[in-house]
Design a protein that fits this description.
Blueprint (H helix, E strand, L loop, with lengths): L1 E12 L4 E12 L5 E4 L9 E3 L3 E6 L3 H5 L4 E7 L5 E14 L12 H12 L9 E7 L6 E6 L5 E10 L1 H14 L8 E10 L1 H9 L3 E4 L2 H5 L10
Parallel strand pairs: 10-11, 11-12
Antiparallel strand pairs: 1-2, 1-7, 2-3, 3-4, 5-6, 6-7, 8-9, 9-10
């Protein structure tokens, strides 16, 4: 992983157009090829990024850029689309590289891990005709709990929690933003699944077009026979 702290400006073009004015930021270049720009705030969400497969080319600025103080020009080009991230570096304060090795990944607590396993085996809980693509679908910002296909062939990303709150919806939103950049997957629909979903989380999910699914852990394990309930 390469970490660069620099005064920089950035422009993203392609599926969407966005720009970042000059400011001091952290640039992260990961071993998988992804490039992320972070500010000193906003928790762990990057201001902008390019997910793999992509290539990073470091070039010299042109005369106009050099006159404005640009020392390096980074061009990050996605290999499967026209998406491009151009970063102008002015003053570099820090530049280091670190070998992190193979990460074992996030280990969920027993209930969340079991919910994921159960929902993968009972994927029809998402709706009749849904099929499982895979569990722990890898992305540049972490694995999506479940990736599935709906009856029409559309992609569905599922985030699973024991208790669903706003943070979980925000996490799924980041996954959806990233997955929808992949033309082989887009459009990707989100489903927020939990044993309990807080009202604020449900409102936020609905506002963002994300479906909500309440999971009955006992029924999914076969402990609770829902057909024998009196109420």
């Amino acid at each position: 992983m390469r970490l660069v702290v620099a005064s920089c400006a950035a422009r993203y073009s392609g599926r969407l157009n966005a720009s970042l004015p000059r400011a001091t930021r952290l640039l992260v270049v990961k071993a998988d090829g992804s490039v992320l720009l972070h500010s000193d705030g906003g928790s762990y969400k990057p201001l902008n990024w390019m997910s793999p497969p992509c290539t990073l080319a470091v070039g010299d600025p042109d005369d106009a850029q050099r006159a404005a103080g640009v020392s390096q020009l980074w061009t990050v080009q996605h290999q499967k689309s026209d998406d491009r991230l151009e970063i102008e570096l002015y003053e570099v304060h820090h530049d280091s590289a670190h070998e992190l090795g193979v990460d074992p990944g996030l280990v969920k607590d027993g209930v969340e891990a079991h919910l994921q396993e159960l929902l993968a085996a009972q994927i029809a809980l998402l709706g009749s005709g849904h099929t499982l693509v895979r569990r722990e679908y890898p992305t540049a910002i972490g694995p999506v709990d479940i990736l599935a296909k709906d009856p029409a062939g559309g992609t569905v990303a599922v985030e699973i929690k024991r208790r669903g709150d706003i943070d979980g919806v925000e996490q799924l939103t980041r996954y959806l933003e990233l997955l929808n950049r992949d033309p082989l997957l887009a459009p990707v629909r989100g489903v927020f699944a939990a044993q309990e979903i807080k009202p604020q989380a449900r409102v936020l999910a609905t506002d963002r077009g994300i479906g909500c699914l309440v999971l009955d852990y006992d029924a999914m394990r076969g402990v609770d026979d829902v057909d024998s309930r009196l109420f």
